Every structure is written in C-alpha cells, then in structure tokens.
Amino acid sequence: MLPLLPFLSRPHKTADSPRWGLAPGWSSYRAAGLSVGLALLAACSGTKFIPEGSKLYTGSTVKVKSESPIPKEAELTTELTGVITPKPNASILGLRPKLYFWHMGEGKTKGLGHWLANKYGEKPVLLSQVDTQKVKGLMVNRLYNNGYFQPVVHSKVQVKGQAASVDYTATVGRPYTIKEIFFPEGDSLLPRAVRATQAASLLKVGDSYSLQTFTNERLRIDQAVKNQGFYYFNPDYILFQVDSTLNNQVNVYLKIKGKTPEQAAKPYILDRVRLNTDYTLNDTTLAPKPINYRGYQYFPDEDVFKAKAIVNAVFLFPDSLYRRRRQDQTLSRLMSLGTFKYVDIGFRPARQKADSAGYGFLNSYVRMTQLPKKSLRAEVLLVSKSNGFTGPGFQVQFRNRSALRGAEQLLVNVTGTFENQTRSNTNTIGLTSYELGANAQLVVPRLITPPFDIRLKNSDFQPRTTFGVGAKTVTRLDAFTQQAFNVNYGYTWKTKLTNEHELRPIDVQYLRLSNPSQAFEKLLEERPFLANSFRQQFVLASSYRYTYNQQALEQRRNQVYFSGGIEVAGNLAYLVSSLSGQPRTTNTDGSQAYTLLSQQFAQYTKVDLEFRNYFRTSSNPSSGNKLATRLLIGAGLPYQNSSVLPYLKQYGIGGPNSVRAFAARGLGPGTYRAPIASENSSFYDQVGDMRIEANAEYRQDLFPYVKGALFVDAGNIWLINQDPSRITVDENGNPDGKNGQFSPSTFLKELAVGAGAGIRIDVQFFVIRLDYAYPLSVPYNNSDVVRPSLNQSFNKRDQSAGRLNIAIGYPF
C-alpha cells in the first residue's frame, strides 16, 4: 500500500526530454495503479466496510474555554477526554487494518478469515453509536467535581466523506476556591480525635474545590482515627457540607454523621492478645494451657519457636490502645520472618470486660500457619556470569526455618558449575572453568548489637543479622586452580518499602593460587600487575550499601533505582602490622608489602554507584512498553600495601549484560590492545580499577510472552596506576604513554559504543534473551601497528561484524 505513494507522485516532464519521457500506454498504467492504490487505502482506512448511510466514527477532541485562566488545564482536558465513549477503532497513520481483518471474517464461522477476525479484527465503530448527550452530561459532572459550577458543554459533528468525528467544547467560569474549613465541634472522644488530625488536612484555604481531594481527605481521617483506637470507624461516617453561595468561594463544614453507630464512636484498648504459631484450617479450639509471656497468651508450645522470637515481631501490645498502624506492622513483620505461609490477625469485643470512661475493649488473635521447618531442594541451572562464562550447573540447598528455635534460617548450599567463555581466539588459556563450592548462612531475624536492643519499631520490615562461611575452588583448564575461603557478618534492614541498608563490618576472604600451568606462569612473569593481583593474600574488608528501589511500586509510571556502596579493606590490618613491626615480603614487581599471620593482605577503597530509570510509555500498569536506562560508575583505589586490586575485585566490561557489541572482558583498559604474541592472555589483561558504563534500552510488547528491544550501550574501564606492560595507543596507532590510565580530558573519546536489537521470550519466571549488537565506536586503533622499538605487532581484529548474545534474564 504505502510503496505506491512515491511512485504515483513521480515528476512528469515533457515528451522532448527522453530521460523522463512516457512510454506508450503509460497513462493507462498510471490510472490503473492509482485505482488500485486508492482501493487499498480505502480498505485499510476502513471506510470501504461502512454500511450505506452510516459514518465511521474516528474520534473526538475536547477544548475548554474560559475568560479566566484555567488551572491545570491539561489535566482537566485529559479527565474530560477520559469520559468519551465509545472509543474509535485503532488507527496507524490514518489506516485501520483491524477493520480489514474484521471484514475478512464477516459472516464466517470457521476458516482463516474467521480466525483472523477473532484474533486481529475489530468491528467498525459508527457515529450512530455515539451518545453525545450522555458524554456531555458526564463532562458537566467532572467539571462540577473540579469546582467549575454551571458549565456549558457543546458538541459538533464534523463529517469528512464516510468518516465523522465529534468536537466537544466546554465553557467554564473561574473555579470555586475554598475560603474556610470547619472541623467538627464537641468534647466527646470522636470529634476530638477528628480535630486532632486537622494539621495534616489535605484541604487548604485558597485551593480549588476538588471532589477527589474531599475523597482523599475522608480516607486520611479514617486512617488517622483508626490509629487512635477507633477500630470500627469507617470513611462513610464523615460528611462534607459545602456552602457555595459566596462569590466563587466555598465554606467547607466537615461533620460526623448523626447516625454513626455507638461502637464506631469510641476508641478501643487491647485486652487479651493470643498468638498461635501452629494454626491450621482444621483447628476448632486452641490449646487449653497457653504459655504466658510478657502478657501474651502463646500457643501451643516452644518446641519449634521460642515465644521471645515471635513476640519480638508483634506490635499489638496487651493493655495498649488499638492502632491500625501496629496491626499492619505486625502482619508485615511476621510474614517477613520467612517461616510462615499465612498470617491472620483478627479482633473481637471483650465481652467479659465492661467499657471504661468511653473506651471499649478488644481481644486479638494472631494465627500463623507454618511452612515446613526443614526442606531439601536440588536444581539444575544454566549459569551466566558477568565475566562472560556460561554453562550448566547444579545447586543443592538444605534449609532449616528455625534452626535455633528463634525463626533463624539456616541455609547450606553445595554448588558446582562447568563454564566456558567463547572468544574469537580459541587459544586463549583458561576459558574453560570448573567450580565447586559450599557455603552456609545463618539469618537471624533481629539485629544482634550487644549491649543495645535495636528493634526499629517504626519499620514494617524485619531487620536481620547474617553470619556466613564458605569455600570454593575454581579450576581454569590449562591455567590454574584458585581456592577462596570467606567468613562474613553483617546486618540488613529496611526503613520503608523502597529503602534498604546493608552493613558488613566483617567480610574476610582468603585467596590462594595453586597448580599454575607453564603458560600461566609465563604470563605472570610477563605481567607483574597480574602476578600481584593473583598473589596469595587476605582481603579483610568492611562494606556498606544503600539501595533505593521504586520497582515494587507497580502503579508508578516512572520508577527509579539507585544503589551505592563503599568497601574498605586492609586499613586496620596495615595499622596493626606496621605498629607491631611485622616483616615485609617482596613481590615480583619489586614492591614490598606487610604481612599478617605470615600472609599478605590487600588494602584498597572501592566505591560503586548504579542508577537506573524505568519509564513506562503506556498508562496501563501491566504494559511492558518502557524506556530503561542505566548508569554504572565504579572505582577502586589500591594503596599502601597494594599496588593493584585483587583480581576478583577488578572490573571487566563487555558481554551480554554490559556493552553487548563486544565480548566479555573484550575492552580496555583505555585504548589497550593485546599484542599478537599475547592474544591468548588478553582475557586477563583486559581488567581495570575504574569503570564507566551507560545503557539505554526501549522495550516493546510484541506478542504474548514475546518482547522486542532496541538498545545503545557505551562504556570502558581504566587503570588508576599506569601499567607499562599494557601499551595503549592514540588515534594514529602510536603509543600515548598513558598505559590504560584514566584521564579526565580524554576518557569520553575512549568510550566504546554499540547498538542493536533484541528479542526476549518472557514467561514471567524465566526469560531467554537474544540480542544482536553492532559496534559504532571502537576505542582502540583498528589497524596493524608495528612498533620497532618494542618489537611488538598488534593484530587487526575485525569489529565491523555484529555480535549475537544469548543470555538468561534482562540485562538490567
């Protein structure tokens, strides 16, 4: 259809111009082509399928007119547009292909045409289906709700051929504003409680009259008085009376309905609180002899959960005023223990206790249904790591949900993987890896901070103290074997849904290299920095990380994610070692380092920042159409006892979750390129102390469970200190003397840039991702360079071709 348009508009020149002359019969071909093109356009525009005498409804416009300024005009216009019915047929550039599919199946009960009509078709929406009087009435109602009293709404039908649209025009005066607000009078408990909330009122003098604001004010007051003990109160007992006889102003009188039930007009005190940690749906009675603990009635016993552990997560206190906030907090805390499948909180009047001084009494019951205390799970995995290693793996996990009878979770994991990284040079050493490890973690649902008892009473989320220990061995085929042992201790807590903190005062690792191959030993000799990063050493670190995440707020159209962390290692060990006169050892590069327990230790400070933004282009919360962006900034500074970061702490870039047009660890540092003779070691060379990376990706729903994406990636890594063994070049291919070191004046020119498109098969719990990326900017010189002084030849690597990435999950 569309390709005909430029053909039909081709310039026509005179017959004495042979280049543009018309062949015999050209006029008849052109007329035929024009007729076919117009017929196809009519079919796709939908007007061909309109019954005789009817008009295709193509939509409406809304305009608000006033002699006075209109506050929030765009929002008001959007609200008025939202009441227009019916919705016109979907169109793309004026074409309505869904009407064509509908016509293919018209009158058919089976076959391809019937299937296409049901799957992709849409019945024509006619002008006769538009009830303008009803729409105008709804618009008048919305205008009243926004303070525009006595508005006038007109409609006008615009006809164009077999199509028609409707224009609505609303004429309004100045909106009414609030002059005064009066809260209920009286000395009884309920009016006093409502008046106590006035300082936080959503109604403000001078604001425009808005029905939505009044509705929100009722909900706010209901929540506030429920936190003052009024358990049976609800928003329907609040009444607003508005005096609109003033000149474009209103007085608002907030009142409590006279027919408010007596039980809703008084606050309640909790009398008895029962905790049942082993409730099932078949329960008909509670245990006859509960344990009395801190005023609670605790059922059934302490064989599985100590009463103290459960009570610490309960904020409904006997002999205290009922507060809805504490009820919600208790429910959230108990569920976040991870030991219960269901938690139910209920209340009943305490019938055996008489009301006192206008207060009633409630009995509360908290019923908890347990998850199995112990479980064993085995999984077969497809492991995909950020350094480009991918392969099958397994994990066996044992879990005890109350290891010490205090809702402590003990997790013991045994893992194993076989991994491989594919690179263009198959001679690269150590790209086939075997890994076997075991670790144990004890998660305690409270902060262990002796001598202090910190409960974070205003948080809905259970804080945790975590103890961990683990060991793993990694064997890189034809390269080396490395053992890593770790012990850690730390805290995690959330102040609210979007904010999370993680503090690890102790995070100790011990790294040991063994069984190096001859090729890898030679590589270490040639690369002193690499020998330093792989040296046998302790990593005695402490770290803190803060995360702000709005992705749990699913209704938000724009969601922000931020994570920032700092890790410090070796400072205390250096102080102790230097003050105590511990002997130094000499490294392969000639530097000297202090030891602790006859072992070297790393010393560095590392900062990582990550910012993401997700903007949903559709107003539908379930839509996957969004623009996702990410910025990564990271830097590690080795000092004193270290001249380079431990290898496991260094940055690499490239691969399916990074700059996708390049192989994992296929970039940097800076403009560095591995010499031909050392190509088989480039995987180990291309790491650095600093990283800057940015990604932008547009995601679009295509079909059920299938999404598409367009993306752009940019980034690189750099060194903090120069490394003479990694020679970098300028744009002409000559040594630049920076040796991969970061420079504020040139780093933008050294960013690698790639772009591409992808398909994602997303079945909610599992995502398979295929991304094809093409390099747009390469930071290193891409030609053969011979440096006689160094006697090194640098290979030309073809970056003109794209790269296909297959991965699990989204890149960010």
TrEMBL record:
Major place of residence: membrane
Database matches in Pfam families: Omp85
UniProtKB keywords: Cell outer membrane, Membrane, Signal, Transmembrane
Sequence ranges assigned to domain Bacterial surface antigen (D15) in this UniProt record: 587-781
Gene3D superfamilies with a match to the protein in the record: membrane protein fhac: a member of the omp85/tpsb transporter family (2.40.160.50)
Places the protein is found: Membrane
Protein name: BamA/TamA family outer membrane protein
The species this protein was found in: Hymenobacter endophyticus
